[in-house]
Amino acid sequence: MPRLAPARASDPFCPVYDAITVLQGKWTMQIVHALIEGPMGFNELARAIGGCNPSTLAQRLDTLVRLDVLARRVESSTPPRTLYSLTPAGDALRPVVVAIEQWGRQHLRKDRVQAVRRAARTAREARAS
Length: 129
What we know:
Shape: globular
Strand content: 5-15%
Largest sheet: 3 strands, antiparallel
Oligomer: single chain
Order of helices and strands: HHEHHEEHHH
Helix content: 55-70%
Radius of gyration: 18 Å
Strand order of the largest sheet: 1-3-2
Number of helices: 7
Number of strands: 3
């Protein structure tokens, strides 16, 4: 296994920290996971990942395009259609997504995950009231 280079105080760029910061962004991994299947339009992508507010999705897609994880292409049809696809950098996340999926299947129990989600939702609702 290759050794990881330690972060240096003189260099504020840390590939591990910065990659995690990008990938933990809301809906990022779900977007990448959906686009592994191929290019999708905005509404198709929204349905594929489910539950994401349209303005949040638009903001996240814009960020991922600026980071060169996704490509945005507008087709000149009537009406115009915008397609999103993975760039080579985004496609390089494929083994990461597959590894996360395999880890989840091997190590997470559905009932425990659902219980944690319910507890988190209950806590959010309690804070909101």
